[in-house]
Amino acid sequence: MFKRTQISTGVLLALGSTLLAPTLAQAQDTQRIEITGSSIKRVDAEGSLPVTVVTKEEITRSGALNTEQLLQSLSAVSGQGSTVNATGAGSSTAGQSTISLRGLFATRTLVLVNGRRLAASFNGAESSAATNINTIPLSAIERVEVLKDGASSIYGSDALAGVVNFILTKDFQGFDIGVMANMPTRDGGGDSQRATLTAGFGSLSKDRFNITASASFEKEKALFAKDRNFARTGNQFPFIVAGATGQGNIEGFYTPGTGSAANGDWVEGTTRPGFGASPGSGYGNPLALANTCADINMFRNPTPTSKGAPYCTFDSNAFVGLIPERDATSFTLNGAFRVSDQLELFGDAFYAKSTAIQRFQPSPLRRSFMTPSDTQFLIQGVDPVLLVYPGNPAYQTGIDYLTAQGFGADVAANAAAISLGCGKFSEIEFRLQQGIEHPIPPKYVENAPSKEVIEVDG
């Protein structure tokens, strides 16, 4: 039978103190854990929905100039159809940069800032409304969390493809100034610069308050296809010949209409025998015969018409904008005051303005576009054909050319519009919110009213 002695009692007390010491130390080292966007898991082991987290250090090492470039570098986001670029040819993006996880469209990928939604922008169609991620200042991002699975049961149908949560910097002390410049290895455009400033004072753990502010200024120069050898032309003879609409060639003989639409007696003109379609069965171009198509910014097509006449073709590739001109300015302000360990007041303000200028070729004017797709010509008594009358300085040139080639007199021509169109897209986003954070078991509850305004012109 075991009998407790003074020695055994002392040993038990010693062992008990040894086992209790780590527990007391752990209790003293307990830290406050703040959960932002609590519906997004932080660790793969916590659930079946893994989250990819990109830290501030990883963002800095990526060398990205804006938020769009950062997401393109993430394996969890990058891929075919994952990011709709603002830096693309044409006007369809209207300066937008949106996220489309798993190719389910940008309207099905939820974008959050500090766990709360941002207002959606659009490029002319309500169905395309999605968050422009380039309005989120890269310098103000503390980390990025990407939920790689659907979360529609939590957030709604706009999170069907997944969730991307941008956590902005807060509880920052000191100053941080950054300057970045990107210069392509070839001249001609595409340069970009960025300057950032982040400042903060106060510590939540020591001073019970903190105010953090950041500012970002970005500028990108336009880059056109004419400035790059791989894109300046659509011609790859003899395999590919640029075939932009509008050829500037003679199509044939035409009898103009008579009467007036206003008087109700207008009669549409008629084509004469031999009238051809440009360029396949037309009469060619006198400049092509003289091998001077370059004088009108065209080139001589290597294949003649069915009548054996040479003709000019317009190569629009050189005028395509590869990267638009872009200016972006953004400001953020975060503040928090810890009333007690259980109560915290917070507020933040967010302002961003992004302006993108894209230049693109408008639709050219040619006979096949004037009818039947556009009936206004016929309604207003205008022959749906580009006629060259005797008063036109080019009329005699055409007559001399047709006569020398054995053709006739009055002709109709098909012209290409070489002038450029220009679209300016400006987007302003503003959000002001405040609230109280307090623990109500089993999780934190936030009350944060917000106001967001989007302005787009273009």
Sheet-strand content, in percent, reads: 25-35%
Q: Bin the helical content.
A: 10-25%
Give the beta-strand count: 24
Shape verdict: elongated
Structural class comes to alpha+beta
Number of helices: 8
* Cα separation of the termini: 94 Å
Over all CA atoms, what is the radius of gyration?
34 Å
Main beta sheet: strand number and arrangement? 8 strands, antiparallel
Quick check: average pLDDT?
Answer: 75
Which parts are unreliable, with pLDDT below 50 for 5 consecutive residues or more?
11-25, 410-423, 441-456
Name its key features.
458 residues; alpha+beta; 8-stranded antiparallel beta sheet; 24 strands; disordered C terminus
Molecular structure report:
The chain has 458 residues and is α+β, with helices and mostly antiparallel strands. Helix content is 14%, strand content 33%. The protein has helices at residues 6-28, 56-62, 67-72, 152-155, 286-289, 367-370, 376-379, 395-404, and strands at residues 51-54, 83-84, 98-99, 109-113, 116-117, 141-147, 162-168, 174-182, 192-201, 209-220, 223-224, 249-252, 254-255, 270-271, 299-300, 312-313, 321-323, 325-340, 343-360, 386-387, 412-414, 421-440, 443-447, 450-457. The relative contact order is 0.13.
